[in-house]
Design a protein that fits this description.
The protein has 541 residues and is mostly helical. It folds into two domains: 400 residues, no CATH class; 118 residues. Helices cover 58% and strands 6% of the residues. The chain has 23 helices and eight strands. The strands form two sheets. It has a six-stranded mixed β-sheet. A two-stranded antiparallel sheet has the order 1-2. A hairpin with a 2-residue loop joins strand 1 and strand 2. Helix 4 packs across helix 5 and helix 15 packs across helix 16. It is elongated, with a radius of gyration of 27 Å. The N terminus is likely disordered.
């Protein structure tokens, strides 16, 4: 099949598959198609943008905020290979603070926008796989994982966008080699390399998938070249070759600029090559995040049934789809490869499930799978079942994002700051809104593992960290403190030296962390403290 013939096939499939089983193959009116996709994007935006400040800042958000603070301070990000994250996302968060002001919510606005862009990118695959892309877009737009982790500031959404750009560019090159497909592939690779060191898992599984599909096609005797590059004229081939070299050079330059802090921290470039050594040690050891092989199956069963179905049918579908469905075969086989790769690695955090997005393309839309045709009633039943599963996912997403966002019983709520944090910080902000001078409150942090406090309290000029022995050395420390945040184990020791009355409020930073306390100067904060607040009286000396 020539490149021109494949392009005609892809375009026809995108129209016919959008209305599977329809008697007419004529395309739907543009307005109807545009309106339906607009609704899809609007729903995705609502789930990602609505009430972004509802959830307490996450442990990782506090750390990301700290790195953004270093950009404000130094003018660039000093890449550290032990951080396991590239510099690109931190610069985007820095841009978010420039545009929307300082704070975790600004980071989340940026990430929510990337989340909607991700869904838009999924929709564009209808050029290659027809209606499967529309089903996949709905699945991911309402997925509990993609909505929950699209609502706070971590790297994963940007990382998936890099994967989408790479694959779309690769598919475009397979259909018709041109400059745009080269640019998309390069953009995808740059985003992947500059976002997370796990890029090698994606690129490795994708390469394996291509080799396996080529082998299957030879067995089926349906093999054809992966591109029509050789059919192009010599002049056009030479032009594309020069373009590839230029794009490659620009990509290397962009990566060098990002990792070197725009050439102010040259060590960052060499650190890029050291990152794999650190990551491989962490990935195999787990470092406190060890999970069993079947961890992803448990998560998918509880939250992501459509992706679980995609996993179950991926092998069957890969074997059944013939060469005209090469692109869908690649998506499903690469999704299976991602599942196996991330299952083998002991280090597992729940947001890594976003890397299984390729399994959402399991819907076949048309009237047959490979050589097996199935009756119209089965098509209708399959669409009804998928609609129900997506709707159930939407209900699950709504509860997770707007009701159970800090509930430790939800596996997706992982290393999450508790609602105690929101309550304590809310009292502090309420007092500042009534008396702006309280921005200068003396805040003493006596918490062993304080994230996200360092970022959230960094603008308080009189915030300091202390240990119990510091109180012994400086008895005036508690006397001058307006707010003291402590681990629960310190309360008994401090009660012996309290110089004044404190209002005590429960302050458990994270669900896996020891319960602690927030001690407010009662005389200063009495107007905003709950009426039934526990009191700690001054110690009699």
């Amino acid at each position: 099949m020539s490149a021109q013939q494949e392009n005609r096939y892809d375009g026809r499939a995108a129209v016919e598959n959008f209305a599977p089983g329809a008697r007419s193959s004529r395309p739907r009116p543009r307005t109807q198609l545009g309106f339906g996709l607009s609704i899809l994007l609007a729903v995705a935006a609502i789930f990602r943008f609505y009430d972004l400040g509802l959830k307490p800042p996450h442990f990782d958000e506090g750390i990301n905020g700290h790195f953004v603070m270093t950009i404000w301070r130094d003018g660039f990000y000093s890449y550290d290979p032990t951080n396991f994250h590239g510099p690109l996302y931190f610069y985007l968060c820095h841009l978010a603070e420039i545009l929307f002001g300082r704070g975790v919510e600004s980071f989340r606005i940026m990430n929510a926008g990337l989340g909607v862009l991700l869904i838009y990118g999924i929709i564009q695959f209808r050029r290659f796989v027809g209606q499967s892309a529309i089903w996949a877009a709905w699945i991911l737009a309402l997925s509990p994982a993609f909505t929950f982790y699209g609502r706070y500031a971590i790297h994963e959404t940007l990382f998936i966008i890099g994967q989408i750009l790479f694959i779309y560019g690769r598919f475009a090159w397979m259909s018709r080699p041109d400059r745009l497909s080269l640019i998309l592939i390069a953009c995808g690779v740059v985003i992947l390399l500059a976002t997370k060191e796990t890029f090698f898992i994606f690129l490795g599984t994708w390469a394996i998938a291509e080799v396996m599909i080529a082998g299957l096609e030879r067995i089926e005797r349906s093999h054809r070249p992966w591109t029509s590059f050789s059919s192009l004229g010599k002049l056009e081939q030479w032009g594309l070759a020069k373009t590839a070299v230029a794009i490659g050079g620009i990509s290397v330059g962009v990566l060098a600029a990002l990792f070197s802090g725009f050439f102010q921290h040259s060590e960052g470039i060499t650190n890029f090559f050291r990152a794999f050594q650190f990551w491989s040690a962490t990935g195999t050891a787990g470092n406190g995040h060890e999970k069993p092989f079947y961890y992803w199956l448990e998560l998918a069963w509880q939250y992501e049934l459509p992706l679980l179905i995609g996993l179950l049918v991926s092998v069957f579908a890969t074997l059944q789809l013939r060469s005209e469905n090469r692109k869908q075969r690649l998506l499903l086989l690469a999704g299976l490869g991602h599942f196996l790769a991330y299952s083998i690695v002991p280090y597992k955090t729940p947001w890594l499930i976003l890397n299984f997005w390729l399994l959402a393309f399991f819907s076949f839309g048309g009237q047959k799978i490979g050589t097996w045709s199935y009756p119209r009633f089965m098509q209708f039943s399959a669409r009804v079942a998928m609609t129900v599963l997506i709707a159930l996912g939407a209900v699950r997403s709504w509860r997770l994002n707007f009701r159970n966002f800090a509930d430790a019983r939800e596996p997706y709520v992982y290393v999450q700051t508790t609602s105690d944090y929101t309550a304590v910080m809310g009292l502090l902000r309420e007092k500042i809104s009534k008396s702006p001078d309280f921005k200068n409150s003396v805040i003493v942090v006596m918490v062993k593992d304080p994230w996200p406090l360092p970022y959230d309290l960094s603008l308080f000029p009189n915030m300091r960290y202390a240990k119990l022995e510091d109180v012994d050395k400086d008895p005036k420390l508690l006397n001058t403190a307006d707010l003291v945040l402590i681990d629960g184990s310190l309360l008994e020791g401090l009660q012996k030296v309290f110089p004044k009355k404190f209002g005590r409020i429960k302050f458990q930073l994270r669900d896996a962390y020891l319960p602690g306390w927030a001690l407010f100067d009662y005389d200063k904060f009495q107007s905003v403290l709950p009426k039934d607040v526990a009191l700690e009286e001054a110690t009699q000396r």
